[in-house]
Amino acid sequence: MIDGSLDLSIKNGIANLQFSHHQSNALPSVLLHKLINTIQLLDKNAEVKIIILQSGGAKTFCAGASFDELLALKNQEESIAFFSGFAHLLNAMRLCSKLIIGRIQGKAVGGGVGIIAACDFTFATESASIKLSELSIGIGPFVIEPAVSRKIGLAAFSELCLLATTWKSAHWAKEKGLYAEVFPTLKALDAALVTFTKNLSTYHILALVELKKVFWQNTSHWQILLLERAAISGKLALSDETKQALKKFKSPC
Predict the structure, then answer these.
(1) Could you give the angle at the alpha carbon of 119 between the alpha carbons of 115 and 125, nearest 5°?
(2) How many Cα atoms are found within 13 Å in the side-chain-facing hemisphere of 227?
(3) Residue 233 is assigned to a structural domain of this protein
């Protein structure tokens, strides 16, 4: 599917939510909004205690924004609306009363790193390196900054931003706090994830809900802040410099 797909299964209080896109699990607007709506529905689902967020395939967790869609943006209204999708997704994850556990099987770029940072706990493989490449295409990781800085600190975030073409290893990400655990294989990751989520799902649901509130204290201003950041990205994305840089990455028809 050109807009990607979203698959959901619920068993024993654990929701498995998987997004997929043929372009390295990039997130066009349609898929972003499907994710937002599904997370909001899971928040209200009394059968769900834990959410596992994952993506399809084995090599890439998420390539961030769809470059094809970015290049097709025609005006400021469209551009701001696109980046607002990422703002709404991060806020949906933040406001969801259920703990969101990230299964990070491969590389993550840009908005994908922001999604990882918005998870409450993450398991990753050794191949799950990360990069914030926004500066190299004329924009910046403004929308995701609050989530990423909250997890790894401003110094590490600055390093990622300024080394825009440099991959940081999964072990670097764990050292900085983005990943909780790093495993040598996907099989080992999944075995640990099953045990972890099974145990977590046996705990008092109200205790888990209250704990998540503690995790996300002092972030209520994100409801406005992330949309303000989306406006910054939206304006920059329409510049000639950014359009030229994006053309280098445009997928062949």
Answers:
(1) 80
(2) 9
(3) no
pTM, to two decimals: 0.95
Q: What is the pLDDT tens value at each position of the chain, 253 positions in all?
A: 568 899 999 999 999 999 999 999 999 999 999 999 999 999 999 999 999 999 999 899 999 988 888 888 889 999 999 999 999 999 999 999 999 999 999 999 999 999 999 999 999 999 999 999 999 988 999 999 999 999 999 999 999 999 999 999 999 999 999 999 999 999 999 999 999 999 999 999 999 999 999 999 999 999 999 999 999 999 999 888 887 877 776 544 3
How many domains does the chain fold into? 1
List the domain range (segments joined by +) for residue 188: 5-200
Residue 234 counted as domain residue: no
Domain of 124, CATH number, reads 3.90.226.10
Type and span of the H or E element at 19: strand 14-20
Strand (E) or helix (H) holding 118: helix 111-118
Question: 110 near 144, Cβ under 8 Å?
Answer: yes
The rounded radius of gyration (Å) of the Cα atoms in the chain is 17
- Which residue in this structure is represented by tokens 């004329």? 138
In a domain, residue 97? The reply is yes
3-state secondary structure of 178: coil
In a domain, 60, yes or no: yes
Burial 111-141, CB ≥16 within 10 A → b, else e: bbbbbbbbbbbbbbbbbbbbbbbbeebbbbb
